[in-house]
Amino acid sequence: MDASLDSDGYALAAQTRDVHKFYGTGKNASHVLRGVSIDVPYGSIYGLLGASGCGKTTLLRCMLGRLPIHSGCITILGKSPGAKKHSIPGKNVGYMPQETAVINEFTIMELFYYFALLYHMNLAYTRKRIEMLKAFLGLPSLTRKCGLLSDGQKRRVSFALGLLHEPPLLILDEPTIGLDPLLRAKIWRHLLEIAASGETTIILTTHYIEEARQAHTVGLMRTGRLLAQSKPNDLIRAFNVTTLEDVFLKLAEEEEISRQKKRASKSVVATGYASPEPQEHTPLLPGTFDHIDDPYDPPSILQFPKLGLPGLPKAYNMLALMWKQLLKFFRHPIMLFILIISPMVQMSVCCFGYGRALEDLKIYVTNYETDEAVDFPFLLGERFISYISEDTLDLKFTNESDEGLTEVEDGKAYGHVVIPPRFTENFLDWGVRVCEKIMNQSVDVNLTKEFLNSATIQVALDVSNQQIYHTINRTLSSAFQALLRDILNVTGAPDYLDHPLLNVSRYVFGRKDLEFADTVYTAMLGAIVIGLSMTLTATQLIVERKDGITERTWAAGVNATEMVLSQMLAFLLLLLSQITPLFFLITYAFDLPREGNLFIAYLLILCEGMVGIAFGLMLSAFLDSEVFALQVAFGIYIPVVIVGGVLWPIQSIPRWMQYVSKVFPVAVPTEAISSILLRGWGLHNDDVWLGFIISLSWLVCLMIMTCVGIHLKK
C-alpha cells in the first residue's frame, strides 16, 4: 500500500484524519478527541504537546490500535493499526507508556529478555542491544531487581525497552519526565540521530514544551482538539513570539474566545435576536487544522473493539508470558511455599476438626436410686449409667437436680439426667402392667402420671446446637437399648424379642463405621481447590494493568487469547503442585475411604481448580480494584458453596434452588467426586461424565468472558 504524502510531498509514516473518540455513552459521553488530524513524515520526530488530560495519551493508544475510534481514519506505516499481517501493535513499534511499566520481580536483564522474546529477537542481537542501551542510558547493574530501582532508574529502563528492538516507529509517552537535564539532552540527541537515519519515526508527548523545539514537527493540543501543527520555528515566527510556550498560550486564549463567542451566538439565535457576526479566525500555517467550531455529536451506537477470533496463539508470545508468570511465582519462594501447602493445611484442619465424632460433652447426672434394695440382680439406673459412652459424654455427678439444671442454664453443661427414686421397681412394674394390658385388654393397669414419671429417666438438654443434641440423644438411646437387652436376658425372655424389627441388612455404598468427616471430605476437596484458585487470580490482571505491564505487552503484539491461555497454563502448574500432595495426604496420611479410581477423581478436581482460576481471571479482567475483586469473589463463592452441597446436602434447599445449584460449577462435580471416591463409580456412569461436562463448560465460558473483558478494558 502506497504511503500518504504531506503538503510538502514527504511520505507519511503516520496519519490521522478527523479522529473522534468518546468515553462513555449517551448524554454522559465525554468527547476526548475532537476531529484530530496529524501528519508524521518518515524519519521525523513529531512532538505532541498539551496539558494533562487534553487527549495526547488517548490519541497514542488509538494509533497503537489499543483503543477503537468512533469516526475518522488512522494509518500507521501504510495500514490501519491492528490490520491483518501488520505488526502494529507488534514488533514494528516500540512503545513507552506514561507508567514505568516494569516488572518489579524481574532483574533488568530478565526484563530485556522477556520483551526480546515477545519481539522474536535472536540471542546475539539481544545481547548487543542490551550492552549498547546500558552504556547509553547509564543503567544500573543488569542483575538488579526492578523493584529496587528508583523512579528515575525505572523510567530509564522503560525507555530502553522501547528502543530494544530498533523498531521503525517509536511512540513515547512522556519519555523524559523525571530525568535529569543532562540525560534528557543525551536522549534527544540519540532520537535525532536515529530519526536522521530515515529508518525510525518518532512520536512523543512531553510536558517540557521548550525541549520539543528539537522535534521536526509539533502538534499543540487542548481539550481534545489539535490547535496547530507545524515546524516549531515556523510557529514561533507566525505568532511573533519567542517561545513555543507563548505560541501555546496564544492559541489557547484564541480558542477560549472562540468558544465564548460561539456560546453567545447560540444564545442569540435561541432567543430570536439578530444573527451573530462572523467569527474571526487566526490564520494558521499551511498544514494546520482548526476544528474549534466543528460541532460533533456522539454516535448513537458506539464502535467497540472487534471480538473476533484472533487466530492461533504464537509460540514465542505464549512462552514469554508463561515464563513471566512462573518467574514471578519463584521470586516469592515463601509465598509459593504457602500456596502449595495451604490446601494441605486446610484439608488437615477439616479432617481433624470437621465431621469427627464429638467427645467430652459435659452432662450432669443425678441418681436418686443409689443403694436401694430391689428384687432384681442390679439397679437399672446404675446399669444405664455404666453403658453411657465416656468417650462421648463427660459425666458429672451431683446429688441435687437443681444444681445440674443450673449448670445447663448457665451454658456450662449440655444436659442433665435425673434417675428418680425406686426407678428399678417402678420401671419393672410398668413393664409387667403393660404386658398384662396387652394380654388382656379388660385389665385396668391404672398408669397415673406420677407413676409414669417415677418409671422414666428425665433428661434436660441444650438443643441450641443440633449436632451436639443429636450426639447426646443417640448416646443415651444406645445406653438405654443396652439396658433393655440386659433386662430381657435376666428375665429369661426369648432371644427373638431382642431382634430388631427394622434392620439395615445391607450397605450398598460405604461402610457402617463411616463418620461424617469420611463422607464430607470429597466435597471439601473441591471447595478448597476452587476457593484458593479463585482468590489467587482475582487480582492478577488488575495489578498488571495498574503497573502498565498489560499496556506494554499489548503494544508488543500479544492478544487477549494468548494472555488468558498463558495465565491458565501457568496457574495450572501451580494447581498441580497443590493437588498432587493433597491427594497424597488423603490417601496415606488420613487413609480416608476411596472406593473408585483416584486418577479420575484427580482429573475432576483439577477441572474444578481450573474453573476457579478462570473465574478469578474473569473478575480481574472486568474490575479495576483489587479489594473489590476479592470482595466479589468471596461474595459469590460462599453462596455457591452453600447451595452446592459442600456443607449440607442440596436436598435440604427448596426444589427450585436445587435446579439452580446444579447449573453452578460446584454441586454436580462435587457429587461426581463423591460418587467416584465413596461409591466406586467410574466413567461408565453418566453422573461422573456430567460432572466433567459442567466443569469444562464453565471453564470455556469463563475463558471467553475473560477475553471479552480484556478487550473491553483496553
What does this molecule look like?
By secondary structure, this protein is α/β, with parallel strands linked by helices. The protein folds into three domains: 12-92 and 167-263, P-loop containing nucleotide triphosphate hydrolases (Rossmann fold, 3-Layer(aba) Sandwich), CATH 3.40.50; 315-353 and 515-712, no CATH class; 361-498, D-Maltodextrin-Binding Protein, domain 2 (3-Layer(aba) Sandwich). Helices cover 50% and strands 12% of the residues. The chain is built from 23 helices and 13 strands. The chain has helices spanning 56-63, 108-118, 123-137, 151-163, 181-196, 232-238, 244-271, 315-330, 333-353, 380-386, 401-409, 423-439, 449-454, 466-490, 516-537, 540-547, 549-555, 560-589, 598-622, 626-643, 655-661, 667-679, 686-712, and strands at 12-23, 30-41, 45-49, 71-76, 93-96, 169-173, 201-206, 217-222, 225-230, 361-367, 393-397, 415-419, 458-461. The chain has a six-stranded mixed β-sheet with strand order 5-6-7-3-8-9, with helices on both faces. Strands 11-10-12-13 form a four-stranded mixed β-sheet. The protein has a three-stranded antiparallel β-sheet with strand order 2-1-4, covered by helices on one side. α5 (181-196) links the parallel β6 and β7. The longest helix has 30 residues, at 560-589. The protein is elongated, with a radius of gyration of 40 Å.
- Number of discrete domains: 3
* Count of DSSP H/I helices: 23
Instruction: Estimate the strand proportion.
Output: 5-15%
Amino-to-carboxy terminus distance: 28 Å
Strand order of the largest sheet: 5-6-7-3-8-9
The global form is elongated
What share of residues is helical?
40-55%
Largest sheet: 6 strands, mixed
Task: Count every beta strand, where a strand is a DSSP E run of 2 or more residues.
Answer: 13
Q: Report the mean per-residue pLDDT as an integer.
A: 86
The chain-level structural class is: alpha/beta
**Radius of gyration from CA coordinates:** 40 Å
Low-confidence stretches: 268-296, 298-309
